[in-house]
Amino acid sequence: MIENRPWLTFISHFSLLLGIGVVALPVWVALVASTHPSSAFGAGEIPLWFGDQALENWRSVFLGEASSGVDVPVWYMMLNSFIMALGITVGKLFISLLSAYAIVFFRFPFRGACFWVIFITLMLPVEVRIVPTYEVVANLDMLNSYSGLILPLIASATATFLFRQCFMTMPGELIEAARIDGAGPIRFFFDILLPMSRTNIAALFVIMFIYGWNQYLWPVIITTDDAYYTLVMSIKRMLAVDQGDIEWNHVMVTTLLAMIPPVAVVIGMQKLFVKGLVDAEK
Amino acid sequence: MSVYFPHKKLPYLLVLPQLVITLIFFLWPAEQAFEQAFYQEDAFGLSREFVGFDNFVYLFNDPQYYKSIWVTLVFSFSVAFSGLAIALWLAVMADRVIRGKLTYQTLLVWPYAVAPALAGVLWWLLFDPSMGPVALWLQYFGVDWNHFLNGDQAMTLVVISATWKQISYNFLFFLAGLQAVPRSLIEAASIDGASPFKRFWTIVFPLLSPTTFFLLVINLVYAFFDTFGVIDATTQGGPGVSTATMVYKVFNDGFIGLDMGSSAAQSVVLMFLVGVMTVIQFRYIERKVEY
């Protein structure tokens, strides 16, 4: 603080509180909407205070007793979302740790070619090449499968790029010391490199989990079997009825349930999240 | 680094998983898109014939395509500018605050974790023409809000939803940028009698320009590609084509219209665009390393 200006301090707090309020407004309305019977919504007005149907709505949606246009209950889709998010996260970390290790700590013919083949994928999202990727996955007979949901989304170099930068800052003496002590490349990887990259891995885990959980277009396209629906994409099916027939209370319970895991991760691991975000874009 | 492991086979084994995944799920589809862009396929995918650049010629003579470019530009720049402006304002305010900074940060960053499609649904509820509180409030003031019929209002809705989600991201980067501004500079300026307002525009804002430029690129990329869910869940490109961005059109022409040739040609155009944006970003990274 350079000088004391009470008026400016007041404006600061006021702006921040206003910002927080506006940011939270839609979630507040969604929470309220999730506590009313469906009949409360058709009347040309939306209730602004909590109703008494909260338990009933949340329970029936979670267990899939409420009609929703999807044949499987929400808890089941939540499980699918977890499998997809964790699959993408672990898969991405696995392949990118290995390839970054090879590119930084080894010299081998075609190293440059490997580097470019991998890094060409940087920033090109699946949305852009959606139709041909669909055809490839269909040719491989992976529609309606977990591998179909997970594998195509692993093909991105962001994590590899981050690990490469992280590894490059490690001192060369480290390898020398390890080699003098008789450690081979595999021993070095598990005993020195992995422990040293622990925070980076954790930070990336947070970012990748959110990325995986929030996938929308890809699951919409390749799953036609309800058994593989993820929670985020099921919203599309729930809204695919006539405008007046949307059961807003159930839609909002589903929306909130789909938000809770990633939001909890961000709030619970805020330090790692911020680190992962800032590092990933450097 | 100058020390390496002397192994012949192991490094290939290590890069193999990523190479295989990249080849199958990235290079193969990209190659297919390039190939398909030069063919015309019938609606059932039974036969196709080579048509050279016809798909591209058709695309760039199609007023609908220019319309989608225009929609994309309006959408992306609206999202980027409103997102940056709001986030910068909040970050400057949070940087001033001494007590409760972390609490404010926590309460502002969580929308990052919300899926774009869900963000769209949340704001749809607020703006629903028949019962949304904000829509009813606007109607009370004489604004006839119906984003199912009015293209501009539909655009406003998707811009708000997409911006809402991105503010948290911009906020974190601006806050980090502000904290890197040397205190001594600000102190010197205030001893010279510069007001907080003047200090911001002549010292802080210029020092933030690398962050701002970086965020502008990231926000444009976000608005281009990651907002598909917002549009698909709320307006589905409508009414008409007033919110159909280029990415939405690739999906729509490919999967709904089944016009594979045109969709592939559009994919190729988008890949080219992403390439340009990547180069810009890399240039920026190199420049940042210098100082």
UniProtKB/TrEMBL annotation, chain A:
Q: Which InterPro entries match?
A: MetI-like (IPR000515), MetI-like_sf (IPR035906)
User: Which Pfam family, giving just one, matches this sequence?
Assistant: BPD_transp_1
Q: What is the membrane topology noted in the UniProt record heading this document?
A: Multi-pass membrane protein
Q: Give TM regions.
A: 7-31, 82-106, 113-134, 146-167, 248-267
Q: Which residues form a coiled coil?
A: none
Q: What GO CC annotations are associated with the protein?
A: plasma membrane
Q: Which Gene3D superfamilies match?
A: MetI-like
PROSITE patterns registered for this protein in UniProt:
ABC_TM1
Q: Which SUPFAM superfamilies match?
A: MetI-like
Q: Name one GO biological process term.
A: transmembrane transport
Summary of subunit composition and partner proteins: The complex is composed of two ATP-binding proteins (UgpC), two transmembrane proteins (UgpA and UgpE) and a solute-binding protein (UgpB).
Name under which the protein is recorded? sn-glycerol-3-phosphate transport system permease protein UgpE
* Species for this entry: Marinomonas aquiplantarum
From TrEMBL, chain B:
On subunit structure and binding partners, the annotation says:
The complex is composed of two ATP-binding proteins (UgpC), two transmembrane proteins (UgpA and UgpE) and a solute-binding protein (UgpB).
| GO BP annotations listed | transmembrane transport
Task: Kindly list the places in or outside the cell where this protein is found, as annotated in its UniProt entry.
Answer: Cell inner membrane; Cell membrane
* Name the UniProt record assigns to this protein: sn-glycerol-3-phosphate transport system permease protein UgpA
Q: Which residues form the ABC transmembrane type-1 domain?
A: 69-281
Q: How does it sit in the membrane?
A: Multi-pass membrane protein
Keywords, alphabetical: Cell inner membrane, Cell membrane, Membrane, Transmembrane, Transmembrane helix, Transport
Quote the Gene3D superfamilies the UniProt record gives: MetI-like (1.10.3720.10)
Specify the domain of life of the species encoding this protein: Bacteria
Report the PROSITE patterns cross-referenced here.
ABC_TM1
Q: Which species is this UniProt entry from?
A: Marinomonas aquiplantarum
The protein's matches in InterPro entries, at most eight in alphabetical order, are given as: MetI-like (IPR000515), MetI-like_sf (IPR035906), UgpAE/MalFG_permease (IPR050809)
